[in-house]
Amino acid sequence: MTQLAVGTLLDQRYRVETLIARGGMSSVYRCLDLRLGRPVAAKVLDDRLMDDPVSRERFRREARSMAQLSHPSLVNVYDTNSSGDHVFLIMELITGGTLRELLSERGPMPPHAATAVMRSVLTALSVAHREGMVHRDVKPDNVLINGNHQVKLADFGLVRATSHAHHTSDQIIGTVSYLSPEQVDGSSVGPASDVYSAGIVLFELLSGDTPFTGDNPMAHAYARLHADVPPPSTRIDGVPPEFDELVARACARNPADRFADAQEFLEAVNEAARTLNLPDFSVPVPRHGAAHRATTVVSPAMNPEPNGLMEGPGQPQQPREGLFPDAEEEAGPHATTQETRTFGAVPPTGPAGPAVPAGPAVPAGPMGAPDAPTPHGAAQPTAYDAPENPPAPAASAAPSRPSRPAGNRRGIGFWVWLVVIALTTAAVAVGGWWFGSGRYGDIPSVLGMDQEQAVATVQEAGFSVSTDEIYDDEVAAGEAVNTLPPFGERVPRGHDVVVLLSRGKPTVPAIPQDHDPLKYEAAVTDRTLEWELGEAAYDDTVPAGKVLDASPAPGTEVKVGSAVSVILSKGPAPVEVPDIRGRSEDSARAMLKRAGLEVSEVRKEYDEGVDPDEAVSTIPSSGTSLNRGDSVILVMSSAIKVPKITGLSLDEAKDVLSDAGISIREASYVSKTGRVVDEVVAVSPSPGSGLDPSNATVSVEVASKVKIPSVLGKRVSDAVKQLTEDGFAVDTSGLDDDDRVIAQSPLPGLSRDSSRGDVTIELTAL
Q1: pLDDT by residue (tens digit) across 217-233?
Q2: What contacts 626, CB < 8 A, 6 or more positions away?
Q3: 46, 47, 51, 137: the active-site residue
Q4: Considering the chain, what is the average pLDDT of its residues?
Q5: CA dist 473 → 99, 112, 528, 556, 561 (Å)
Q6: Where are the alpha helices (DSSP H) in 241-345?
Q7: Which positions ≥6 away from 208 have C-beta within 8 Å?
Q8: What is the pLDDT of residues 629-650, one digit of tens each?
Q9: Active site residue 137
Q10: What is the distance between the alpha carbons of residues 708 and 673, in angstroms, rounded to a whole number?
């Protein structure tokens, strides 16, 4: 990202004075509004994202959202521009820092301090919720503390209208530690999601850390789906049960079990504060925040007129405040009777003596709160109370003299003063040498030199030298970028100076062979790049939760501080169970195999709509999403197939049906002529149909007449065999088997009724 030069004009109105902070998408600068003469903050979109419609839309949405909201607990937006060379927002200048920086400086907060922060955060959120908006990125980094101790909520870049806050993609949007369960699983996101995130912030304020961890960002995010937020009192002593209950209610996994919105959460916080009789508290300003530094290092040439938004150069330096005290200390006997104050150096009352080196700074100890006394003389509670007997200042007015005879006191005093003058003179001499050129030296510039030349230059200046390497966008690899301490600093000769050699522009690191996200995150940050969690993707070879790819691609040369979007694997893509109904078993198995599924078992089941030996369904059913390689149960039809029995005699048909497990429910004679006696001429259900094994029966129709066959000319034995097979009775009285049939009665071709009994054929033979 190209940093704007000091003096750059945005929209011919806002003059850049100094960089406050830089992120993956934008940078924030302190600027001077030349039209109104006031300092402002400019949030400028990274020039790499100028043509990205998503990033421009986020900027536009943030400006529009914040412009619709107006409240002291919200950062004001004054102006926006997206048509020129830069896309930027002009916002209220915050002269303090972030809640994250305050936590880094001071650690966990006692309940009354956490209450003061949460009141402002929840008030700001309630304003957004009343307007139908969901912030979606509540975290300490987006909570700002102004120089007047006012806490404000910022960064509405992820805000959505409640009616549109449905997260349907696989991408997890937000900061992992503060995500609500619904942001992780893709459910509808409403005000209760902000309540959850605010509950995590309260947990962190009280305990000093967030509740969940994970081996990788995905595991970290998904942890909240399977576990409740623990009570903060389990992480740190001194948290009242009322605050455990606040966190538990705000961070319930089910949104319906949380506070409905920020206003309800705020009312519960206030009720807990009243129950515990917590004192009011003025939130301290971070002393080492980026915004605070930016408002205190602007040169007079850039900001010639002091204003109330930054400390003037003539103000005495305030001592650094210590850590937050215990709640019991705050409620001590002096909490309401003695004003909390900050003590600076006390100026001498006599003439100024010679300059001597300043001693080491003395920590403020239990003082250090920067708050002014409240009106009417009431003491305003802060993190610390001043002690009853503060230590005497290093320099004070002349001591009072005791009333006693002078005696030889004047002579003793003369020698005392003589010793003091001698010591002072020695101190001046030592101080002159200490601060003079004999003791200190200026660190030389080594920019652009090769390693050998840079090391020699620093050594010639009287310093010991070591080297280190850093990435740099402008300086070629192997050349010196700077030194630590930097060029121009005055440090004692012999002091160790580190020559920083350029490694050139960083490249996106290669993905580890084991695809470990922790290793890859370390490799990314080691190259000064910022890890961003991109949209996860399915892959058949890389296990879920492991690094699949990165954008820009590994090996790409990028600028220092560039964001790398890391794509984690979701494992093999789910497959859909195909519809195999009506297919043969072999065909169904092949179809399932092509889909990436295995058949673990084959079951039989009757379905009147499926023919025998065809597939009925699968378990789970068709259309179900499964992981590749999963198994299914194949259900085949158990129906009994009706065999072909037409043309057979009734007795033969019974045998065939019995072998198939089917019985005849009804047999009826019809006026038809068969080829054999009692010939089956029809069956219902028809041959090939499927029957339920629990009720496998058929109805048959039998021909009531039979056509007399001709056996003339055949041997008697052959004629008898044919006729008996066709169901006829045969009269062969007085005939030999080898005789030839010369006549038969009834005659061939005639029909006889067979429904009333046997039909007998009388043979005549020679």
Answers
A1: 777 888 899 899 999 99
A2: 574, 575, 576, 577, 597, 620, 632
A3: 137
A4: 78
A5: 31, 47, 11, 14, 10
A6: 241-250, 262-276, 290-296, 327-330
A7: 103, 107, 108, 235, 236
A8: 899 999 999 999 999 999 898 9
A9: yes
A10: 10
